[in-house]
Amino acid sequence: MRFVWAVVAFVLAAGLIAAGIAQRTIFMGPSTQEAAVAVEEPAPYVLLDGDVLREHPGAQTLLVRGDGDIFAAYGRTADMEAWLAGSSYNHASVGADGDIDVAFVDAAEPEDDGGDTAGETPAPEETPAVEETPAPEESAATEETPATEETPAAEETPTTEEAPAEEAPAAETTTGRSPVGSDLWLDSFTDTDSLIADMQLPEGVSVIIARDGTADAPEDIAVSWPLDTSTPLAGPLLSAGAAMLLVGLVLYVLAIRHQRRGRGPRRKGPGPLPPTEPIDIAQLPPAERAAIEETPSAPAPDTSAPDTSATDAPAPDGKPADASATPGSDTSGSDVRTSERRASAPARRRRLLAIPAIALTALIATGCSAESWPQFGEGTPSPSPTATIIAPENQKPPAVTEAQAKRILQEVSATLSDADAAMDIDLAATRLDGPALTARTTEYALRTALPDTTPPAAIPTDEVEVVLPEATDRWPRTVLLLSKSSGDDTIPPVILTMTQQDPWSNYKVDNMAEMSADAAFPKVAAAWLGTSLIPDDSAFLSIRPADLATMFADAVDEGEQSASYGQFDELSQNLAQSIRDSRQSVVQNLADNGAAETSQTSFDIVPADPAPVSMATLDSGAIVAVSLIDTESVTPTSADAVIRFGDNAQAKALTGVTESAKGVTTKYEFQLFFSVPAQGSSEQIRLLAVRQDLLSVEVIK
């Protein structure tokens, strides 16, 4: 009966293990579900609406196939629609029936919005308005005189400050624009012939697919989502089968053991041996009888102590003494040891049989993933504490995400490093604008004439400590960054502002300065929230941003006699004093060279043309970036005197002469970042960062 139960256990084990394996193989459904995007009319771009990607729950996988290079990127839907304004593209969206509908969107037709938005930056959804038809009198003039002088101007790329009527040609030139390398995308992917991208896109984010903006976009597009392939019964079935297999093995071993103990059916052995009787020596042949008689008899045993040599001492021929015992001698000790060895053999065999069963059970249990076991105790996770910052109801999205800003900064730094190495101002102009570009232009001119001039340090990108984007859905957009170097202590932290003029432009650095080690950066909003730009004439700060540069210039010129001197902190006052000291050194240098009576100097520091950039902080203050131009003029006091440059190699390099009869003018640019407190605060205006660059050296004519 034990064999029957063992067989039943083996059959159950096989069934359970087979059922568990079938759960993970033939009975397991597909791991993904896929939806194809049917593109009927070719176009340079395909816009996958966010609803298409979120049609099913779970992460999305984009699959695009086609010959050649394939580009895909995702970003805010409104930003993508703004970027595609004036272009033909296919728009994939989810229809009312749940199917994916693909509609061909032709280049936007001119629309007349009545001029209500003239002079304003259009919102992303209003970007097509840049194609609006010119005023009637302009249209009439164009029809009457096709060769008017305004025709070339219509072909120029407009700036954001131009009127919407002049921006109309900009939308006409959008066809053929490459999406590769745009700062507008949150992330992008590029591959050849086949592109597979895993995404987890939230609401309000869409995907654009293209090649180079000129060739038609790939038409073999599909989106897949993962399916739940968990089999919670597979693990228990496999474990139960392994346990049943172990039970069967134990029953089988017990059945064999029981059979052997019961001396069940076995082969017929030989009959009983005849009893052993004494040998009659007298009947043996004479030779054998003589040999037996000549054998010395063993000494009498010593009865005073137990004799242990009879069984332990070896015989003269090298065999144990008990080996020479007569057939009738006692061999019970040998039989006992043999029986013990035979009895221990089944126990060892049972252990050897149990080891594979235990190993198989452990292998099956550990080989099953979490999907093969039922999951218990998966309750709702407890909420983690969040920041106490509450966004207003009408809060716009930040211009960039934190990851996007870091990526843009790395690209800016790499581009400027390449431009500095090649002294290519055109390449630098792709990432610089305003005062930063002007300073770079002079820097390259100096390095061309003076090769030993030290090139500017690269923008550190190791640690981006502050990302403060403007919260807006319009253009231009501004972002403030604070970046540090983690490997080189000699490189100071850098504060900079970047601006994106329109959806088709990349971010350019317009203000950049090195932060002082003694400066404390104010508290600002999180990158996911963003902040707002402060108007130049805002009355909610201790001083208007438009007046900040003028007030600091007055503090430089007048020193402690200036009415605004006490409003600036110690770092600001030290900077003003250093500027005055540099002016005094110029005067002293002329006196040392005996030119004090034949020449005169004048100094003037004024705000630069670019408007200040002001971004709000959490304490109702603002970080304000301003630029000032410090002009230094040296002129002769008599007609016979000339101004010689002497050892001033920079003046010689930038002017191309060694002296001037009418004098020379040198201009320096200061890029400054201040922390301005709120209106009514008793705090001073704190200097955060400063950068001084030589702008020009010109001979007075």
Explain how this protein is built.
With 701 residues, the chain is of the alpha+beta class. Helix content is 31%, strand content 22%. The protein is built from 16 helices and 19 strands. It has helices at 2-24, 50-53, 77-83, 136-144, 150-155, 168-172, 234-261, 286-294, 309-312, 332-367, 402-422, 425-428, 435-449, 545-558, 570-592, 649-655; strands at 32-38, 45-48, 60-76, 89-94, 100-105, 187-199, 205-210, 220-226, 463-469, 477-484, 494-500, 508-515, 599-607, 613-616, 622-636, 643-644, 659-660, 664-676, 686-699. Strands 9, 10, 11, 12, 13, 14, 15, 18 and 19 form a nine-stranded antiparallel beta sheet that branches. Strands 1, 2, 3, 4, 5, 6, 7 and 8 form an eight-stranded mixed beta sheet that branches. The longest helix is centred in the middle third of the chain and has 36 residues, at 332-367. The protein starts with a helix and ends with a strand. Residues 110-174 and 300-332 have low confidence and may be disordered.
